[in-house]
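S2.1 Query sequence (Anoctamin)
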Amino acid sequence: MVSLNRTSDDNGNANNQQQQQPNGIEIDLDQIVRNFDQRTRIYEDAIALSTLSTNLSMDESPYCTETAELKRVDFVLVYQKSINDNDDAENPLNHEMIRRKFEANLMNEGLVLKHVPSSVGNNVNYVHIYGPYDVLARYAEVMAMRMPMKTIKTSLRYLFGEEFVQTGQTFTTVFSKEKEYLFNIPEHDKDEFFTPSQRGEIIDYILKRTRFKDSNDFFSIGIHKLLADNVYLAAYPLHDASKNCENPDDCTAIRCYLLKNWASLFCILKYQQVDKIVDYFGVKIAMYYVWVGFYTLMLIPAVAMGFLTFLYGVLTLANDQPTNDVCSTNDTFLMCPICAKNCDFVNLSESCMPAKASYLMGNFTTVIFAIFISIWATIYLEMWKRYSAKICFQWDLSDFSTIDEPPRPEYLAYLSRQKSTKTRINPVTRVEEPYISFVRGRLPYFIMSFSFVMLSVAVVLLIMVSIIVYRVSTYIALSTQHQYESEFLRQNIEWIVTSTAATINLILIMILSIVYKRLAKWLTEMELPRTQNEFDNSLTLKMYLFEFVNYYSSLFYIAFFKGTLAKTPPDGALQTGKLNKLIEPCPIGGCYFDLTIQLVIILLGKNLFSSILEYLIPYLYGVYNRYVYFSNDKKSSSSSSTSNNRVSNRELKQYEQDYLLESWDHSVLFYEYLELVLQFGFITLFVSAFPLAPFFALLNNIFEIRFDARKMLKNYKRPVAQRVKDIGVWYTILDALGKLSVFTNAVIIAFNTDIIPRMMYYFTNGNLKNFYESTLSNYVINVDDEVRDNNIENCFYYGYREKNGTYSEQHWHILIAKIVFVVVFQNVVTAINSFLKVIIPDEPGSLRLRKRQHAFITNELIIQHELQSQQQNLQKQNTN
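Output structure tokens follow.
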């Protein structure tokens, strides 16, 4: 159905890298086994990164030239050259000299560079980079890339069967340049061996580790430092040519294939082309889409259960005795005013609409649905672990270990400004490098960061208090407006107040979210994390804490606190001096109705607002960049006689079109994850308040996948491919939300619905007739109460109280029942979840078997290739 992930292309092949597989010789397996003990393993699966030198010498490389015609463009650097030649000399950073040294070192590494001016005649220049096979092969070995091996006819097919051989699975092993004969390298063109995304990944690896000064200064290394200092404006691998996508039916480029078969809204019911995504964007981005697709697929049973819960409420609403009693009371029960002086007495029947809405969303099937969702969250996470293990095996990432990252440019910039720095040995590379003392250098910033986080939480709470004041004030104001005799206003005042307050809250949440993004990033920068991975983890924790409080605080207030401290008439609610506008009462049936309205507006409003901004901002960024790009053309044309030929945007070269797109950085994918993790929190923590939440999440995700795909293909520069094994720290957050949801749903059902009181009343009386009458207490108005109508002697209010205002025995019985329900719910569901985690293995048994088979076959293929190579060498020696 929707968003299923397919890991094969249209021809059923598991690997999109289709190359001709040469026929090998047939060798008997028995001979291999007999001679196996006499051989040693000729290949290592791990490359020691300590052998890496950031300044490998290639002085005699034949590729050290800027004038050679490039066979292909793998990477592009962009810089802006001043129109006045003297500007660079006056620049304290001396950008021109730094660029020359950096590019010379790149050519010493073996890369081929070519400078290309802008086609519109402005002062933007491009450096095209081509990675020859020898260079890519050398670094592929350093990066421990697994590459496809040659196939060979062998008697193994008789052991595993023809079906195993014909699955299309390519066997891979860690690349070794000395053992090239093991790998399926095209003889006609070795450049086709590495895919474009792999070529970009390798060149990015080189760029990050190349120096731009003559000295061995630790701070003068890496393209990111040059980008931070504006020596270069951008660095990116190229997209497939846009002109190839004008007629997708005739196009073979992966980009236009994905635009037609993945990013189109016509594909919302089709499988995601996961292998194509890996080929084009790399594993990290593909892993995100695999996770979104799997999450969306797993929402289907939650949607079905939510619809059943809501449908039960719709079908039984007309026959619900307590709701009918509320709507038909007329003048029987006159409810007490919620404030002194200006508030009116109201009939219980005016709570008819909130009572109906509460029953629709919160009937006895809600308990079953809450249990289902709590268990569903555990099953989803356990099944994701199994599925991600399968995907990692499919993408040859089962044995992947993260390569040691270079320091961030901001980290190096801070160190370079220090008069003296301490050094230590890097435990991975065994290279001496400077570092920042945690106590003196970083601890003060951690304390400052923590203080800002607490301040931000306080701001959110202050805004929540302001919303409470608005709700109470608006309710009182509308209640006292006698000129509005509209029946609609009188019956829907709760809807109006709750909806407007939730909308205002949503607007403030979105504004705070924008502020928090900048604040969290600034605080993380101040903490000086050494690597990008450390930066991402710190930002994730900080930003999620911000957004958790920002989005969920109002929901937690309604679910846990609203109404619990509300004053009743016996407590002085009808006396002016004792009125507290910060304490809200709940309507008849509890605060369930308010919680539902708040959840619906925040969930739907956030999804709509975020979707519009996510697509609109990159598009407007591109429009602005094109305007500036051609504006610079006008300026430069006034000072250059060679700029007379004007070109349109459609005539720009592909590398220029890519430059005008918004730059891709780590934060883009981070905020995509954050948005969906927050959504997961809504549909687990508070789903008992709105059973249709999974449906709207499913609907959002179906379009989110396609919109995000189109945005990445059309509005962003092509990201550098990265390898990862999982979704990282996000899984830990999802697991924590799943565990917390058990408690929140138990409390919402127990204390924000009338399910428990209904059950106790039914067991006592055998029916629910006059149930709401039993939940009301009678209050005799005294002389100290300030009410509008002094002729009324008594009124009713919601609560289980005696005439003197003390809690009745029934109140304590119901309270104990609610607490027991929470404890039983929490423990039973937690026990079920723990049992499920034990019985569901992290990897399917079939996958473990397949891993062992592949390891065995890969080892045998290596041995047989070795024997074949030795036989060929012997034949050559005999011929000579």
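The chain has a mean pLDDT of 77. The chain has three domains: 5-243+851-879, 283-405+437-635+647-760, 761-822.
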